[in-house]
Write a structure and sequence with these properties.
- The structure is a single chain.
- The protein contains eleven helices and eight strands.
- The strands form three sheets. Strands 5, 6, 7 and 8 form a four-stranded antiparallel sheet that branches.
- The radius of gyration is 21 Å and the shape is globular.
Length: 325
Amino acid sequence: NGVKPINFNDYDQMGAELNRRGQAAVNMAKNFGLKPQILTEADTDLAVNVLNKMAPIDKIHFLQRMRQSFGTDTQGTALFRTMMDQISPKSPMTAMAANLATKTGTAVIDGKTVNPVTVSQFVLEGEYILRGSKVEDPTQTSKPAEFQENQLKTAFNNKMGNAFRNLNAVYGARAQTEMYQAVKNYIAADHYHNGGGDLKTWAMDPKNVDRAINAVTGGLWTRNGDVLMAPWGYPMDSFQNEFNDRAKGALVSAGLLDAKDNMPVGYSFDNYADGKYAFRNGTGYLYDKDGKTVIVDYSKPRPAQTSGKNWNFDVLTNVTPMGGY
């Protein structure tokens, strides 16, 4: 097909080829409206095979090099995530760990500051521990670790509540499955580094479950019945304090509200992507005049508040949630 194969064993060649493909994907999307693709099917298989033979920290460093191939701007981030979307069906924890490792900021877990690379490393280490591979050398086997699966899943679902509610039920179900696996992996790695005694008992301690959920999700905020996952690395108090201003700003930008008007009530919110929250309007989403979903987006600057107007958005009517995903 004329596409030059990627040599994943040569960092320079890999970086140059990924950069070239990234630029080509951007041009194809702009000029022809085609969905961006970075890897061929053969490249995807090869990349997964190479990555799965690496120790977790080596895998993270490799993924960071891949990320750097696309540049450091928001376009580069989008291209890297596009590539991870291609890898995810064959190695979902690799893709999740990659997106975690390349985030900015830190999380506060049990009062301690944790960087995204450490969380990413735990997610990968736990995967090896649970499948019976040695952490330091995944090509070597050991006894697989075991959980009380039903009890842990119940604890996870109770904590997460409606966090995976989404109009796209397939996407929601996939997100819930992958997040649960990442939390389970984190618990296994946390026990490996910091625990003692039986893993099954450790994994059912609510403090350990909460620590894993907060590390992987970035923290949870239950807001008027909606369980929202904070943008990873974003201080929880800032996330909560800015939400009302950002919600009104999103409506104003969409042309659905005059900046001088008060915030209407009646909306609920779904987790849409990391740091992005979709307005729910009854059983559907709220759309702008161009048919795009209206999003509270923490990747954008916080809008300035209009003086003299109440932006309070805390009093909402109850909205019947859609089925979880």
